[in-house]
Design goal:
By secondary structure, the protein is mainly alpha-helical. The chain has helices at residues 5-15, 26-46, 49-73, 76-79, 98-101, 112-131, 144-161, 179-190, 202-214, and strands at 89-91, 109-111, 168-169, 176-177, 194-195, 198-199.
Length: 228
């Protein structure tokens, strides 16, 4: 989503005008936050590494199953053993142009050839998806929200506001506070990132930030999305 200059000014005000350095590059900040939103949405589509691994395992299984079915169904002798119901009849030879175009001739007739064509298409699509770019294109080990709130936005804050990453709490209420927390809170809201349509709780943001700090050190990801 495209952010306006005014939205960035409002965000800076929420963080604290006195926190922003005199040489703060507002345009660079705007682009970095915009990019983080795009990154989040890509992550939502590709999922975490665990999700990608499950999908890859399922696709490999589908590829194996469809390959076995292709081999079995192309043996014409096997057609006679395939019986869905007493009233179903199957054709093993595509000798007419409409054999594939009209696979179900009537309620009691199923085209064996049409089933093969559909199976071939399924096998090809499964193979294509397995051979395509990483199923988890962003290689995220955490959920997109945890990555955004715990890593991406704190990195942007640190680089643009020249401050260390950390969250404090108010002595009287125990509520999260501090420039970093206010920045991430404002960034999540600005990008309209919600949980089942509801605003993320402050504690979810705090947990994402603190979980990141407690994780083993990783290669850093720059605001342009490139690892150093």
């Amino acid at each position: 989503m495209a952010l306006t200059v005014q939205q960035i000014e409002d965000l800076i005000e929420q963080v604290g005008a006195d926190v922003a350095p005199a040489d703060l590059d507002r345009e660079s900040l705007r682009k970095a936050i915009e990019f983080s939103g795009m990154w989040y949405r890509l992550g939502k589509r590709s999922g975490s590494t665990a999700t990608a691994n499950k999908r890859s395992k399922w696709l490999r299984r589908m590829k194996s199953i469809t390959a076995e079915l292709q081999e079995a169904m192309r043996d014409e002798e096997n057609a006679q053993w395939f019986n869905i119901g007493a009233s179903a009849t199957f054709s093993t030879v595509a000798d007419e142009a409409d054999e594939i175009a009209d696979p179900i001739r009537d309620k009691n007739s199923i085209s064996w050839t049409a089933l093969l064509v559909a199976l071939d298409e399924l096998h090809e699509e499964v193979s294509r998806q397995l051979a395509s770019r990483s199923l988890n294109a962003l290689e995220l080990s955490r959920s997109p929200f945890e990555y955004l709130a715990g890593e991406r936005l704190p990195q942007i804050f640190s680089e643009h506001f020249k401050r260390k990453i950390g969250v404090s709490r108010a002595a009287d209420t125990g509520r999260a506070q501090g420039p970093l927390f206010r920045f991430v809170r404002a960034g999540v809201d600005l990008l309209n990132i919600t949980h089942n349509g509801k605003r993320y709780q402050d504690e979810a943001i705090v947990k994402a930030i603190r979980d990141t700090k407690s994780r083993p050190s990783r290669r850093k990801t720059s605001t342009c999305g490139q690892r150093s």
